Amino acid sequence: LLERVLEAYTDVTRFPVPARPDAAVVVGATHDLYVGRRAVLELHAHLPGSEVRWVPGGHVSSFLLHQDAFRDAVADSLDRL
Question: What share of the chain is helix, strand, coil (3-state, %, to 5)?
Fold first, then answer.
């Protein structure tokens, strides 16, 4: 039951494609066991023209140790708008 609830509300590919999917920069972690490689690539496929960037680490460690990569992704995405 929990899996179905989470899927219904956290799977962003269930929502319409935004107006500027080409501005999206999707950041995935190489060893993330929560948001796996397949989910990152599915999101990328859902956003035509988007870019995928990979950072080393798991779900939390990648964010804590590579905050510059996430900031750069946000800045680059905004620059594309």
Answer: 55, 10, 30
Q: Which two tokens stand for residue 65?
A: 């140790």
List Cβ neighbours of 74 (8 Å cut-off, separation of 6 or more).
Answer: 25
**Can you give the pTM of this predicted structure?**
0.88
In the prediction, which pLDDT does 3 show?
Answer: 77
Inter-residue contact 53 to 26 (CB < 8 Å) = yes
Joined tokens for residue 23: 């501005």
